[in-house]
Amino acid sequence: MSTRTIAGKTVQVNEEGFMTNPNEWTTEIAVEIAKEEGIADLTSAHWKVIDFCRQSAAMSGAAPTLRAITNGAGVPTKELFGLFPKGPAKKVAKISGLGKPEGCV
Amino acid sequence: MAEENRKVAFICSKGNLDMAYPALIMGWAALGNGIDVTIFFTFWGLDMINKERVDHLQIPPVANTSMKMSMMGVPGNLGIPNVMGVLPGMTAFATKLMKDKIAGLEVPPVREYLQMLVDAGAKLYACKMSVDMMGLKMEDFIDGVIDIVTAGDFMDLTEGAQIVFI
User: Fold this and answer.
1) pLDDT at B2 over 70
2) How many CA atoms lie within 13 A of B92 on its CB side?
3) pLDDT tens digits for chain A (105 residues)?
4) Do A98 and A53 meet the contact criterion of CB atoms below 8 Å apart?
5) Does some domain include residue A103?
6) B7-165 — its CATH code?
7) What pLDDT is recorded for position B138?
8) CA torsion B109→B113→B115→B116, rounded to 10°?
9) What whole-number distance in Å separates Cα of residue A48 and Cα of residue A30?
10) How far apart are the CA of A60 and the nearest CA of chain B, in angstroms?
11) Inter-chain residue contact B5 with A86, CB threshold 8 Å
C-alpha cells in the first residue's frame, strides 16, 4: 500500500493505482485520474456513469461490473465503451475511486 | 508511436450451451480491459450466431460425466445415469437447469451477450467451409457478424493475436 497526491490531496492507492479508500475520493481527483487515463474532459454523460458507480459501491462495497453499469445507469454498451475507450472496466473504477470490479460480466 | 494494442481471437467450434459461454465471458473481460477481440465461428459453433439456433442451444446429460445431481442440490457425486439421460425431455430438462443457473448469476443469454460484445467492438466472423457445408447464408446470421471468411482470411485477420480454441 502506498500513497500518492492527486489534485492536491494525498490518498491511499494499491500497486495498480486504484484508490483503496473511496472516502478519500473527490470530484477533482476524478478529473485528474481521467486525464491520466486519456479522457480530457468529463462530460455529464461521464458523470452519470461515475455517480452510478459511486452509489452502487456505497451500497455493495465493490465497484459494479460493466453490465451492472449499463443496466443500472441506463447507459448502452456502445456508449459506455465510447465514453471510456480502451478498457472501461478498469478505467471507470479507477476514475470513480474504487477498486477493480469484482465479477465477470 | 503508440504501443500496439493487445489482441485476442477466439475460435468457437461447439454449439452446446455450456461451450458457448467461455468465449463470451473471456471476450467480454478482454474488451473491458481494452483488448481487441475477434471471434471466428466454425462447425457447430455456427449455432451461436445462427438466428434460428442461438436461443435454442442445449446441454445433453448423456455422456456428461461432470453433470452431477449436485447441480440440483443433491449432495455427493451421484450422477444422472446415461440410460435416464436418453429419455425424452432429459436434454430439455438439463438445459433448463443450466439456463436457470446462468440467469441466477445475472449472466445474459447467448444472443444478448453476443450483442454486448458487438456493441463493445468485438468482430465476429463465420467460417466459410462450415457455412458451405451446412448450406447457410449471411442472412441466417445475427446482426454483428461481419463476414464469411476462409481459414486463411482468419489467419490474416488475427495477426499478432493470442488465439483461444474452444
Assistant:
1) no
2) 3
3) 788 898 888 888 898 889 998 888 999 999 999 999 999 999 999 999 999 999 999 998 889 999 999 999 999 999 999 999 999 999 999 999 998 888 888
4) yes
5) no
6) 3.40.1260.10
7) 96
8) 140
9) 13
10) 16
11) yes
CB contact under 8 A, A67 and B116: yes
Q: Which three cell numbers stand for residue B53?
A: 439456433
The candidate with the shortest Cα–Cα distance to A87, out of B11, B158, B162, B6, is: B6
Q: Count of domains in chain A?
A: 1
Specify the residue for cell string 433448463: B96
Q: Which domain holds residue A45?
A: 2-95
Q: How far is CA B56 from CA A70, A86, B146, B157, in A?
A: 26, 33, 22, 30
Residue A101 lies in a domain: no
When pLDDT is cut at 50, 70 and 90, the band that residue B1 belongs to is very low
Place of cell 454486448: B116
Of all residues in chain B, the one with the smallest CA distance to A90 is B33
A105 in a domain, yes or no? no
pLDDT cut 90: percent of chain B above it = 80
Residues in A closer than 8 angstroms to B119, CB to CB, are: 76-78, 81
Q: Give the residue carrying C-alpha cell 447507459.
A: A75
| A53 in active site | no
Single-letter amino acid, residue B153: D
Chain A touched by B28 (CB under 8 Å): yes
Question: For B65, which DSSP code?
Answer: T
pLDDT digits (tens, 9 = 90+) for B64-119: 888 888 888 888 888 888 888 889 999 999 999 999 999 998 899 999 999 999 99
